């Protein structure tokens, strides 16, 4: 079960980078948490603005044969259930963003490390208590901005770990059903080569 070994920092460049740089010395299912990231990253090396008051977490899963997108599904559904627990109404923007309304509240970054085995780092950034997003403007939101309540980060982390373990204990089909049910893109129209299509499914 994840959560038995947690390493915490007040500030770090990136929790994912720390795990990758120290992977040989870390136990399987280690969680690394930081109050601030100075070089947080999202998909395609996009910058993740990692200000104080939010949750920045990386989970190490060693010797795993699970495909990266399956890790995205598990993490996405865990975040959805966490936010629903706090009476918020999130959706999943394929493949790895969590939105409330049209605003991003969380993101997931999956990175694999391949040597004599395949290890996976599941990075999660969740906006919790931040209310000003500067250049991001109205593209981002947070739990506090949505509810007006300030949250204890230790409690939010504890809830996330509990829910994540519950998701991991179930079969992937159950999580994938939730992933599609809460998809932001299914049913949306997209334009491609001067034609309009409707997205009916993700896989």
Model description:
By secondary structure, the chain is of the alpha+beta class. It contains 5 helices and 9 strands, in the order E-H-E-E-H-E-E-E-E-H-H-H-E-E. The chain has a 7-stranded mixed sheet with strand order 1-2-3-7-6-5-4, with helices on both faces. A hairpin with a 3-residue loop joins strand 4 (90-93) and strand 5 (97-100). Helix 2 packs across helix 4 (153-169) and helix 2 crosses helix 5. The longest helix has 18 residues, at 68-85. It is globular, with a radius of gyration of 17 Å. It starts with 5 loop residues before the first strand and ends in a 5-residue tail after the last strand. The model is unreliable at 188-192 and 197-201 (pLDDT under 50).
Structure at a glance:
This protein has 203 residues and is α+β, with helices and mostly antiparallel strands. The chain has helices spanning 15-21, 68-85, 143-147, 153-169, 172-181; strands at 6-12, 31-37, 55-61, 90-93, 97-100, 103-114, 118-126, 189-192, 195-198.
Number of helices: 5
Class by SSE composition: alpha+beta
Poorly predicted ranges (pLDDT <50, ≥5 residues)?
A: 188-192, 197-201
Q: In which range does the helix fraction lie?
A: 25-40%
**Largest sheet properties:** 7 strands, mixed
Net shape: globular
Which sequence of strands runs across the widest sheet?
1-2-3-7-6-5-4
State mean pLDDT (0 to 100 scale): 86
What is the succession of H and E elements? EHEEHEEEEHHHEE
Strands, total number:
9
> What is the rounded Rg?
17 Å
User: Could you give the distance between the termini?
Assistant: 27 Å
